[in-house]
Specification:
Oligomer: single chain
Distance between the termini: 88 Å
GO molecular function, one term: para-aminobenzoyl-glutamate hydrolase activity
Pfam family, one: Peptidase_M20
Helix content: 40-55%
CATH superfamily of the largest domain: Zn peptidases
Keywords: Hydrolase, Signal
Largest sheet: 7 strands, mixed
CATH architecture of the largest domain: 3-Layer(aba) Sandwich
Strand content: 15-25%
Radius of gyration: 26 Å
Protein name: Amidohydrolase
CATH class of the largest domain: Alpha Beta
CATH topology of the largest domain: Aminopeptidase
Structural class: alpha+beta
Organism: Niastella vici
Shape: globular
Length: 493
């Protein structure tokens, strides 16, 4: 009889504990939902301020490692909102880390702000370079003016919740220069600036709304420089050795090599210096190469062969060659636990709704495409979440190196007209319009909502970390693709 009494007592205690746990869980969920509602309204109320900020950065259009005004503006917004800002970190003048709060969890948000060379464009739906950008032909063809601003906006909102005691922990906003080929985040990783961070969030402008649970391509980029001997091309050509002949010989060898490398590999190049006058044998020539594959060891191997082609070109043309690795990034490591959490919040935020005027603008831009574009209503929809294991990748990003250092999650929102390719004048144009600002504010909201989940659900971070550790593998050691070189601060020169 006594045993039965004790058993009933134990069962009653367990049920009581379970009830208390469920009540606490329900209360925490209710509190988080209330915080999310407040945060959504507050972010939206700051729309005009953040639109003004991103428009200023759009107008600056500063290329990698030269983003002085853009970086300063974002830092000032963060300082004005109570963040402590360390600038010029990791030997990069335009990089910064802004911090607010204390203790765990530590949540990081990535912010980018570099533009692309050769993409000057006004907001017209037809190709029309900005008249004020003749000397500096650049534009935000990847939307990083929106990227940086939304990330700062999200950081500020989470800071407000910490400041008022509604959340506990630390928020960090990372100012990341030179994503476009300069690999700025690699230097932040290498400097240990993500040590102790629990989760990192990021986003990217695009032509659709989606959580990115896919992979990317590892990448090594380098400039190959050939040195020859000048001579009169008609009177004494035998006395000259053409550096541009060496560039062309290298390019020809690499192009023949394409048949004998893994088909998933991408190699692109541009001749950045091809001589100055036809009647002068050029004593200098330069070509800029990218090598990509999802398998970073294949990238390393193919790049060695590209280097050998350069050496052979120099030998065959009687010139000399040197090269500089300007960038190098890993393949992105996705995290499905975090992706699922962020996806739910993106669905809650929703897509972008165009006005009649914006719809007309969008359709006008689509007439410039030489392919069939999606319906403009695609901007209002959310893509389904799925892990991309196709092996195709979707370009390269230095976010990848962060993702092998700390659990990382990202999304994209429709800041461009559906069908718009990145790195295009069409992306620059829409990014300077209300269309871009609407997508930007949606990204900020989705990051804030996901941040609230991370601050209020320790188990979510635990699950994401467990997946992260499994995916990396026990023997993983980070080895930067660009080695131990210092930041290539003048790679855009």
């Amino acid at each position: 009889m006594r045993k039965l009494f004790l058993l009933n007592l134990i069962i009653t205690g367990v049920l009581a504990l379970q009830s208390d746990f469920l009540y606490a869980q329900k209360k925490a969920t209710g509190n988080a939902d209330a915080l999310k509602t407040t945060a959504l309204n507050d972010v939206q109320s700051q729309y005009d301020l953040y639109k003004k900020t991103e428009q200023q950065i759009w107008s600056y259009a500063e290329v990698g490692y030269k983003e002085y005004k853009s970086s300063h503006l974002l830092q000032q917004v963060l300082r004005d909102n109570g963040f402590t800002v360390d600038s010029g970190v990791a030997e990069m003048p335009t990089a910064f880390v802004a911090t607010y709060g204390s203790g765990k969890p530590v949540i990081g948000i990535l912010a980018e702000f570099d533009a692309l060379p050769g993409l000057s464009q006004d907001t017209s739906p037809e190709k029309h370079p900005r008249p004020d950008m003749k000397e500096v032909n650049a534009g935000h063809g990847c939307g990083h003016h929106l990227f940086g601003t939304a990330s700062v906006a999200a950081g500020v909102e989470l800071k407000k919740l910490i400041e008022t005691g509604k959340l506990k922990g630390t928020i960090k906003v990372y100012g990341c220069p030179a994503e476009e080929g300069g690999s700025g985040k690699v230097y932040l990783v290498r400097a240990g600036l993500f040590n102790g961070v629990d989760v990192v969030m990021h986003w990217h402008p695009g032509d659709r709304n989606a959580v990115n649970a896919g992979r990317s391509m590892a990448n090594i980029s380098a400039k190959f420089r050939f040195h020859g001997i000048s001579a009169h091309a008609a009177a004494s050509p035998e006395k000259g050795r053409s550096a541009v002949d060496a560039v062309e010989a290298m390019d020809n060898m690499v192009n023949m090599m394409r048949e004998h490398i893994p088909s998933s590999t991408r190699i692109h190049y541009i001749i950045t210096n091809g001589g100055k006058a036809p009647n002068v044998v050029p004593d200098f020539g330069e070509v800029y190469y990218y090598v990509r594959n999802q398998d970073r060891e294949i990238v390393r191997s193919v790049f060695e062969r590209v280097v050998n082609a350069a050496k052979g070109a120099a030998l065959g043309t009687g010139t000399t060659m040197d090269y500089e690795i300007t960038g190098g990034v890993y393949d992105l490591l996705p995290n499905m636990v975090l992706s699922e959490a962020m996806y739910k919040n993106l669905v809650k935020v929703g897509g972008v709704t165009y006005t009649a005027a914006e719809e007309a603008y969008a359709k006008k831009i689509q007439t410039s495409f030489d392919f069939k574009a999606p319906d403009v209503e695609a901007a209002s929809k959310i893509d389904s979440l799925k892990a991309d294991t196709s092996g195709e990748g979707f370009g390269s990003t230095d976010v990848a190196d962060v993702s092998w250092t700390v659990p990382t999650v990202g999304l994209s929102t429709a800041t461009w007209v559906p069908g718009t390719p990145a790195h295009s004048w069409q992306a620059v144009a829409a990014g300077g319009m209300e269309i871009g600002a609407k997508g930007m504010i949606n990204a900020a909201k989705a990051i804030v909502l996901t941040g609230i989940d991370l601050f209020t659900q320790p188990a979510l971070i635990g699950k994401a970390t467990a997946e992260f550790n499994r995916a990396k593998g026990a023997g993983f050691q980070y080895r930067p693709m660009l080695g131990d070189r210092k930041p290539a601060l003048n790679y855009r020169d």
